[in-house]
Each structure stands twice: as C-alpha cells, then as structure tokens.
Amino acid sequence: MDNLSMLTDLYELSMANGYQQTIPDEEGVFDVFFRKVPDKGSFVVVAGLQQVVEGLRNFHFDQSDINYLRSLGLFKEDFLDYLKNFHFDCQVSAIPEGTPVFPREPLLTIRGPLLQTQLFETMVLNLMNHQSLIATKARRITYAAGKRPVMEFGARRAQGPSSATYGARAAVIGGCSSTSNVLAAKKFGIPAAGTMAHAWIEAFPDELTAFEKWADVYPDTAALLVDTYDVLKSGVPNAIKVFKKLKASGHKPVGIRIDSGDITQLARGARKLLDDAGFPEVKITASNALDEHVVMSLLNEGAPLDNFGIGENLITSASSPVLSGVYKLAAVSDGGKLVPKIKVSASREKVTLPGLKQVYRLYHHGTKRAFADVIALKDETLNDQLDVVKANPLATKRDQFLTDFDAVPLQEAVLDGEKLKADLPDVFEIQKHSKALLSELPSTTQRLVNPDEFPVYVTHALDQMQEKLLEAQGK
C-alpha cells in the first residue's frame, strides 16, 4: 500500500505539534467504533484491517512532505524533525475482519505516544469505514441471493480507483464470489468474472454473427449477453443456435445474461426456451442496477435466476452510503498510569465509553448460539454470573443479569510497534470466517427488514466508570 501519512486532516498534525510542545511524554488510547448501522440493519461486517495494518507499518514522511508542512508556517522545527524520523511505536488490537459487530463496540484500539496516535485518525477511519460499509452491503445482497453467486461489477461507478479496488475486496468479505475488476482480482486473489458488453454485439452485422465470433474466441467460457435487441425473439434463440454448435464440437455452453427489461418475465421465457432446446444446465445471470431488495423481489416472484452481477448499488452502498465510524480518545497516561477519558454531549447517545476495553461475545453455555455481546474493562474477569447494563443509553430496562454462558473475547493483538501479532488471512478465508460467525447469530437479527436488535451490554464496572466521569463534569 502507498504511504498514507499525508491522508490526514490538518488538525491532527496541529494537535500532534501542540502535544509535543506541551505534553510530549503523554500516552493515548483511541477507540474506533460506530453508533448507527447502514440500511437500518442490526450489525456491520468489519473490514479494512489489513489495509490499516499496512498503512501503519508504512507510515512515514518523506522530504517533500516535510517541505510542504514547513511551508504552512504552523509547525515547530523539532516537530518536523520528529516526523522526518518517524518510527511507529504503538500497540494495536482489533476485532478480526469479517466479524459481525454492533454499535458502540470498539472495533480497533490504538495505544501509544499521544502525538502519534492522534496522527492516524483520518487514515484509519477512511480505510475501515469504507470497507466495512461495502462488506456490510455485500452481506445484505448475498443474503438476499441465498446460495446463488453474486459477482461484483461496480468498478466504473465507484468513487475513484481505490474505492473500486478495495471495495471489491470488501465485497468478497461480505460474500461475493468474484469481481469484474481485474486489478482487484490480481491484487487480492479474487476470481475475475465478466461476459461482454452490448458494444460487442453492435460491432458485428447482426447478433448471431456476434455470438458466433465470441464462441469462436471463447468456446469454453461462452456466456452471451442476450438483451441488446430482443431477449426472447432474437437474443435467446440466437444463443441457442450457437450453443448447439458448441455442444456438437465438444464444448459446454456456460450461460446467458439479461441486463434490462422485466427480468422475471424474461428469465422465465429464456429458461423455457433453453430447457426446450436441451440446455437445462445453461445458467441465467441477471444484472442492471440490482440491490438486495430487487434480488429478493425477483426470487420471491419465482424468477429462474442462477447468478447475479451487481454494480453501482453494491460498490457505493447507494441506499446508505456512509458508515459514520469515529475515533475517540478513551484514556491518557499520567505518570505512567492510564486515566480514563470521556466525551460528554448533550445527546446521551454520543457519550463515549472510557478506558481500555475488551468486547466479548456470549454464547449459551456449551453451544455456538450467540445471544449477546458485552463490553468490559480490559482488566476485568467475566464471571459466569454477570450484572450488566444495556450499552444503548436510550434503552428501557437497562439493567440485566446474565448467567450460564461462555464468553469469547473478540479483540486480539494485531501490532506491537511494527511487529505483526496476528495473521492477516486472504479474502476468502475472511469470508469463510464471517459466514461461520454469522451462522452463530440469531436469524432474526440477520433479516433485511426490521431485524431484531442483538443485545450489547456494558459491565457494571464500565458503566460506573462512565457515570463517575459524567458526575465529575457536572452531568
């Protein structure tokens, strides 16, 4: 990954410069978390950790960066010298990619020199917010598609090359099977997929000739786009003629793609024509501005579809295009001792959770059936009987008593300085991990419309720490 040290907001550099002049030895702890789930879902599929790790390990300022920063006239020379000789000296812990996570849970925690930890805010949020957003959208779409493969087709509609490439990675984490983006396919080991555009058909004298020429070039991967002129009157009949020639010469036709029109009716008609012609194995792919709701509608209508190619609504998460993850200070050091910190707000929802923390997933004892998450102080030991409080400050009946559970910690050590402390698996390993964890959640929390809330609690000790800090601020 390219060096992203200058992908920052100016105030981060200004604050770091100020820290060096005033409290240079202070240590800071920052948490990354979100408060609201996109598309009114119940969880987010976390993604982007690998790029965060790469960005932190490669974090440095070259001479041109130093020269530019000097030209702003804002920074002391000793601070610029510090940046010139920058060495990453923080500890990072995080919830692994692919894990379904919930509001207010710290997805990633960075602890180290305060003037360093402040510098990473924009870079970390940019990487994690974007990929987690797209992974979550992909999970919704692939959930709607069931076992039918979903191909990511969105590069041309993404907001720039990085969004296209890292969005494709996130889409696979969320469940997609392949991508049309060749750069992403190469970079992340994702199968490259695609058929043809309408331009191919239009470039030849007629549709049949176009199909025949394509089959001559790609006899073993012949998937034909059948909606350039008329799907049922010419597209599918011409495809069948070509498929018969391929079959006669020992090749297996792959499929057709429908990219416009009433897809349910066209797919039904195409399926009948293909079956009657002796090609029940030929797959039908649908594309054309699909999302999870359109996919679900098509399948509920009985459309005989085998695959989906989904572009703009996936790669941009068009219906809910922002994950508002935040990067908040949770503690600072004072003579070597960490002191918890809190952000106070008139809105109780925006009050932060102080201190070093760990997130636990709770399972009914002896099972893999998750029923709640608990956010605890890092040094707490969870007993098998636990007084907790709902993490959502607006919830009613907040106090709960939990028993008969197994608690599994979610955050794990990732970086100690530049030393890697955890594996960074490939995208399909992450996808497999994600599907396994999703299968452990209640099905009612996974539905696309009006999902049940998955309970997230904080321990009594953490709740009391927050209340004590609020009282100290007169709140």
From TrEMBL:
Mind listing the UniProt keywords for this protein, alphabetically?
A: Glycosyltransferase, Ligase, Phosphoprotein, Pyridine nucleotide biosynthesis, Transferase
Where would I find the Nicotinate phosphoribosyltransferase C-terminal domain in this sequence?
357-465
- Catalyzed reactions per annotation: 5-phospho-alpha-D-ribose 1-diphosphate + nicotinate + ATP + H2O = nicotinate beta-D-ribonucleotide + ADP + phosphate + diphosphate
Instruction: Give GO terms: molecular function aspect only.
Output: nicotinamide phosphoribosyltransferase activity; nicotinate phosphoribosyltransferase activity
Q: What class of enzyme is it?
A: ligase
**Superkingdom of source:** Bacteria
Identify the metabolic or biological route this protein is part of.
Cofactor biosynthesis; NAD(+) biosynthesis; nicotinate D-ribonucleotide from nicotinate: step 1/1
One short Pfam name that applies is: NAPRTase_C
Q: Which residues form the Nicotinate/nicotinamide phosphoribosyltransferase domain?
A: 150-339
Q: Name one GO cellular component term.
A: cytosol
Describe the location of the Nicotinate phosphoribosyltransferase N-terminal domain by residue ranges.
6-129
Q: Which Gene3D superfamilies match?
A: Aldolase class I (3.20.20.70), nicotinate phosphoribosyltransferase (3.20.140.10)
What EC number(s) has UniProt assigned to this enzyme?
A: 6.3.4.21
Q: What is this protein called?
A: Nicotinate phosphoribosyltransferase
Q: Which organism is it from?
A: Lentilactobacillus rapi
